[in-house]
Specification:
Blueprint lengths: L1 H14 L11 H51 L9
GO molecular function, one term: transcription corepressor activity
Main location: nucleus
Keywords: Nucleus
Length: 86
């Protein structure tokens, strides 16, 4: 998590600084600058969204495995009312 935060801070410093040497000089450069800025933000957002979805999927798989393990243990212990295996 700290690495991701450092990467984001670094990207902000490099790509979104108002004191950058790449400051636009005319309307066309400003348009391109803003388009690039928005594209970079969209790319970062998509990357983070994909990472979140992957982590949620992993968590769901772990929960399924845990539920199965608990059901197996309950069946081995002969506990009544154990959930049937999936």
């Amino acid at each position: 998590m700290t690495d991701l935060r450092n990467e984001i801070d670094s990207d902000l410093d490099q790509n979104y600084s108002l004191n950058s040497n790449a400051d636009p000089k005319n309307m066309q450069e400003l348009t391109i600058y803003v388009q690039n800025l928005l594209q970079n933000v969209q790319d970062k957002f998509q990357t983070m969204s994909d990472q979140i979805i992957t982590r949620i999927d992993d968590m769901g798989n772990r929960i399924d495995d845990l539920e199965k393990s608990i059901a197996d243990l309950m069946n081995q212990a002969g506990v009544e009312g154990a959930a049937p295996e999936k």
